[in-house]
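User: tokens in, sequence out, please.
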């Protein structure tokens, strides 16, 4: 079986590199698993020393920015701290929201339980804000756009869970981790259920787009990370069956 590449390069110059990472890969050192595979270590083989300026969850795929020097790191980090960077995620959830948009403002405390999950904690939690938009529903599933205004660990996942929605194949915040299969979507599916491979068997959350100011040129950059193969296959099948497409929605 051909191995999924750890990352593809979206943009690179003397100051920054923007990568599209696979699900299941850390972007920097982790205190719980020092030996886990890391994106910064792998990418350094191609780009040299890299400085992390923000994070996305290990199980999330998609766009990540690294600085290539200390000055770029300082300026980019300041943009994230001042919430000047706009981040857009796409996710597939179980169920159908009754809202078109949802503003969530719930303080979050990372590592808040025995499973090291992030929890809502109004006394000790840090301010955490996410804006959600329903892109469209596909039978028993829905595509949702998430724009986190803060950058807490597992923020999107927890804010959705607190409002009754779980992301498909979420190993931490969902009671339903069953892989998504085409046989469950198509009424007239005629394949072999015993040999059928899942369309999607990992967290259906993708860091799709990011907008920020280049630390050296001052240019406003908006960059997108194409869906990985499993999410792309899922997108195409759902678009074909239910006529709902999160990528086409972006261009409207």
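Assistant: Sequence out:
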């Amino acid at each position: 079986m051909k191995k999924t590449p750890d990352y593809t390069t979206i943009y690179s110059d003397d100051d920054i590199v923007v990568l599209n990472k696979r699900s299941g890969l850390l972007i920097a050192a982790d205190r719980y698993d020092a030996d886990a595979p890391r994106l910064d270590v792998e990418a350094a083989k191609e780009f040299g020393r890299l400085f992390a300026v923000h994070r996305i969850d290990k199980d999330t795929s998609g766009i990540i920015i690294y600085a290539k020097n200390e000055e770029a790191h300082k300026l980019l980090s300041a943009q994230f701290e001042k919430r000047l960077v706009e981040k857009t995620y796409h996710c597939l959830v179980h169920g159908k929201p009754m809202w078109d948009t949802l503003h969530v403002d719930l303080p979050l405390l990372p590592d808040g339980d025995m499973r090291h999950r992030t929890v809502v904690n109004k006394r000790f939690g840090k301010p955490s804000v996410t804006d959600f938009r329903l892109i469209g529903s596909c039978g028993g599933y829905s595509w949702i756009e998430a724009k986190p205004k803060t950058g807490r660990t597992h923020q999107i996942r927890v804010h959705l869970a607190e409002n009754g929605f779980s992301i498909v194949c979420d190993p931490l915040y969902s009671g339903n981790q069953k892989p998504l299969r085409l046989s469950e979507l198509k009424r007239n599916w005629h394949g072999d259920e015993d040999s059928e491979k899942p369309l999607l068997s990992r967290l259906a959350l993708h860091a799709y787009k990011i907008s920020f100011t280049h630390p050296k040129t001052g240019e406003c950059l908006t960059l997108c990370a194409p869906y990985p193969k499993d999410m792309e296959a899922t997108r195409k099948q759902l678009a074909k069956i239910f006529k709902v497409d999160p990528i086409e929605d972006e261009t409207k």
